[in-house]
Design brief:
Layout: H1 3-8, H2 17-31, H3 34-40, H4 44-61, E1 68-72, H5 80-84, E2 89-94, H6 97-106, E3 112-116, E4 129-135, H7 144-153, E5 155-166, H8 171-181, H9 195-200, E6 207-211, H10 223-232, E7 240-246
Parallel strand pairs: 1-2, 1-4, 2-3, 4-5
Antiparallel strand pairs: 5-7, 6-7
Length: about 250
């Protein structure tokens, strides 16, 4: 562990065997997905999805040089790399070691440190990050209010918390639920939430936006126009839901 991480890491006062076992079991869900996850974003429609999700994420988070940002549920680092490209240093936390390994490989040469951990029990002191972000991890947590409370706890006063998740109001959710009913190992664990649901689990009022108004089966050449129309109309049915709060 680097000196910088030692400065930011708080004492492990709540580490117990039951939590360790829960974390270990949860991590197994994601260990087989690093390659599949990255391949999806290289497909024609996946490339467009990545672009619009990245644009919204960076607009909400506004990463800046000199900041220290916690990326909770960083996965393979596919969005972490976009954040790092704007100059901050990033601590990435994930429950899956294979996912973290991918993230560390992608972010070589950047100020990134990976750490295995649980977003319900963040191993950091209070108010030690300028900003905290979590991209599509909350949908795997039943106690969303507790998870968001943890994100706020480790954020400095005046700092920004950004959470993205899969929108229950989107047609993508219905498709994923159908896959879950057919036994899809990942989708059957997902908890879909609406914009109102996300607002209800946060301790303060914030801003919520959605993108990805086109569908998976739409022709890639038609998707940009569909997306422009959805964003122009400020629809709340986009598949990718992002919320932004400022810690008081």
């Amino acid at each position: 562990m680097s000196a910088e991480q030692q400065d930011i890491k708080g004492p492990a006062t709540r580490d117990d065997m039951s939590n360790h076992n829960r974390l270990r079991n949860a991590s197994k869900l994601f260990d087989e997905w690093p390659e599949k996850y990255d391949r999806w974003f290289k497909t024609p429609i996946g490339t467009l999805v990545k672009k619009y999700e990245k644009d919204l994420l960076l607009d909400m988070l506004q990463p800046r040089s000199g900041e220290t940002i916690l990326d909770v549920g960083c996965g393979t680092g596919i969005f972490t790399l976009d954040i790092l490209s704007l100059g901050p240093r990033v601590i990435g936390l994930d429950i899956s070691h294979p996912m973290l390994l991918k993230a560390e490989q992608k972010t070589q040469g950047f100020p990134f440190w990976g750490l295995a951990g649980d977003m319900l029990l963040l191993p950091f002191a209070d108010e030690c990050f300028d900003k905290v972000v979590s991209v599509t991890a909350l949908e795997f947590i039943a106690d969303g209010k507790r998870a968001v409370k943890e994100l706020f706890r480790v954020t400095k006063k005046g700092g920004i918390v950004v959470v993205t998740t899969l929108n229950s109001l989107s047609p993508w959710a219905a498709r994923r639920q159908k896959a879950a009913d057919s036994g899809h190992s990942l989708f059957k664990q997902i908890i879909f939430r609406s914009p109102d649901d996300i607002c209800a689990i946060a301790p303060v009022a914030g801003t919520v936006k959605t993108v990805i108004h086109f569908l998976k089966d739409d022709p890639p050449q038609a998707a940009p126009e569909i997306e422009r129309d959805g964003q122009k109309r400020n629809l709340d049915t986009g598949a990718f839901l992002a919320a932004r709060w400022v810690k008081p």
